[in-house]
Specification:
With 408 residues, the chain is α/β, with parallel strands linked by helices. Strand 5, helix 8 and strand 6 form a beta-alpha-beta unit. Helix 4 packs parallel to helix 10, helix 5 crosses helix 9 and helix 11 packs parallel to helix 13. The longest helix is centred in the C-terminal third of the chain and has 22 residues. The radius of gyration is 22 Å and the shape is globular. The chain starts with 16 loop residues before the first helix and ends in a 5-residue tail after the last helix. The structure holds pyridoxal-5'-phosphate. Pyridoxal-5'-phosphate binds next to helix 5.
């Protein structure tokens, strides 16, 4: 049969409405300005992104280097059983009792969040998220057709959990879930036991899912974090979204996990997991070896981040007009600056400012709020630089605030 080729007419092709709605990363949008600053010969201190500078432990890299196999094959869609069994040990140490059948290994925590949304929520369903929140939740929500309903936490209270009444006001017949991140990105806030119990009450009352993103579990500086998995009485509601990215400075490994005791959810998630075949094999080997790291491994990394937090928060609060609550966990801090507009300020830092041949890259806070107009005078700082560089970055910021044309 003679098939006539159809002419390729670009104008006729349209992007899906989902593709159009998909938000670009508010953190990465400043990258071209940072690149231009570097081309001009300036040093850029990156406090904008949560890429840990702490070295990935040699021991877990070696497990990958010395892995012995003839075929790099697909793993089980839920992840290697040996890895999932190892993770049971990891979770036990963290005070979380699960068995390996309740763990689905994912391609990063990102996929765990996406799978959680896809398996539990219908298009049009609503998920309440304390804002400011990890900006990529917006992207996963668009992908799943889910509506993000922000409940505002405030810098004045250090970004504590909003009161129960604020949640209650937002619950509608479409509300299906609450999503928390604990310790929090971007605020660094660590929810207390009481706050977690408050959440339990709302979840129970309205029979909601509680998605709990615990990517930063190990980095808590004011006592032990409470996992949502430890909340008695809502075991079926809780979906833990986890990742090794920050824990072992292994962001490029792309390994995470979705953990729940809810068998229906596991069955639903498993179908998504099967459709994408399997999570990365190399990083499962790395993840498995990571569970065997000595128990004191986190003492070192935690002490380093705490030292940096102390320097950063002190330096910020010493600057005129700057407020920065002391974060209880993760490696982020949110600061209020005496500026007109954080997006303009962050761009200006890269385009028009330098001090001693350097400048600093920050994340404008507007991208972390769902409510338009909020966060205009706030920025997020990731303390992923050593103390020396952190101090130099703070010198830059201090000088910048003196000369910024949009100073308030
Ligand atoms: C709160 C939070 N959740 C999830 C992720 C995604 O993690 P992963 O690299 O495992 O996809 C990040 C990454 O920055 C994060 O900060």
């Amino acid at each position: 049969m003679n098939i006539k080729p159809v002419p390729y007419i670009c104008e006729m092709l349209t992007l899906s409405s989902r593709g159009q709605l998909m938000p670009p990363s508010p953190i990465r949008k400043l990258v071209p300005y940072a690149e231009a600053a570097k081309k001009k010969g300036f040093k850029v201190y990156h406090l904008n992104i949560g890429q840990p500078d702490i070295e990935t432990p040699e021991q877990i890299l070696n497990a990958v280097r010395h892995a012995d196999f003839k075929v790099l094959e697909y793993s089980h869609s839920a992840g290697n059983e040996s890895y999932r069994r190892k993770l049971v040990t990891y979770y036990k140490k963290a005070g979380i009792e699960v068995d390996h059948t309740q763990i689905i290994v994912t391609t990063g925590g990102s996929e765990a969040i996406l799978f959680g949304f896809m398996a539990c929520l219908d298009p049009g369903d609503e998920v309440i998220i304390p804002e400011p929140f990890y900006a990529n939740y917006n992207g996963f929500a668009v992908a799943a057709g889910v509506k993000v309903v922000p409940v505002t936490s405030h810098i004045e209270s250090g970004f504590a959990l909003p009161p129960i009444a604020a949640f209650e006001q937002l619950v509608t017949p479409k509300t299906k879930a609450i999503l928390i991140c604990n310790p929090n990105n971007p605020t660094g806030y660590l929810y207390s036991r009481e706050e977690m119990e408050t959440l339990k009450l709302i979840v129970k009352k309205h029979n909601l899912y509680l998605f709990s993103d615990e990517a930063y579990r190990e980095f808590s500086y004011v006592g032990e974090p409470m996992s949502a998995m430890q909340l008695a009485g809502i075991e079926e509601n809780v979906i833990l979204m986890d990742t090794i990215s920050k824990r072992y400075s292994a962001c490029g490994g792309r390994i995470g996990a979705l953990v729940t005791k809810n068998q229906h959810v596991l069955d639903g998630v498993m179908k998504f997991a099967q459709a994408r075949l399997s999570p990365p094999s190399f990083a499962q080997i790395l993840g498995e070896a990571a569970v065997d790291l000595p128990d004191n491994y986190f003492d070192g990394t935690k002490a380093e981040y705490k030292k940096r937090r102390d320097v950063l928060v002190k330096r910020l609060n010493e600057m005129e007009g700057v407020t920065c609550p002391n974060p209880g966990g993760a490696f982020y801090a949110m600061a209020r600056l005496p500026i007109d507009d954080c997006d303009k300020f962050c761009q200006w830092l890269l385009e028009d400012f330098s001090y001693n041949g350097a400048t600093v890259m920050l994340a404008p806070a507007t991208g972390f709020y769902g409510t338009p107009g909020l966060g205009k005078n706030e920025v997020r700082l990731a303390y992923v630089l050593n103390v020396n560089d952190l101090n130099k970055a703070m010198d830059c910021l201090q000088e910048a605030l003196k000369v910024y044309p949009g100073k308030k």
